[in-house]
Amino acid sequence: MIDNTMTGYRFARMRSTWGGVLVGIGMMAAVDEIVFHQLLAWHHFYDGSTTDVGLMADGLLHAAEIIAIAAGFIMLLKLKHSQLLIKRRAVAGFFLGAGGFQLFDGIVNHKILRLHQIRYVDPILPYDIAWNVAALILLFTGIYLIRRT
Fold this sequence. Notes:
The protein has four helices and no strands. It has about 150 residues and is mainly α.
């Protein structure tokens, strides 16, 4: 049932956005893991130890991404079932989550914590720039979309 009060609208906006954010985080983590960890084998989530530890870290990342995707979809399905889903907010949230994950990974995981690098080559700078510019494009797309809703 649709709640026409301002509180109901705020709830629907917030939940629609956060459902999209969770799906975006999970999907970007999946793309990162599938493309860069598995197909290209450029790095593991944690490269500071043995290959076995790196593979275990990838497995933990995979579990976390599945949980994020499932939780986000459940939130969105509940909203849709109760006719409170705001699709534009969910799409904006998706881009915010995907871009936020990518930027966090590029700055915090790659540079601050040094869990892994994008690729172990010299020079690394073009890869860092491409990674973070892609993140910013996704993030700014989400910001643009959220402002339009």
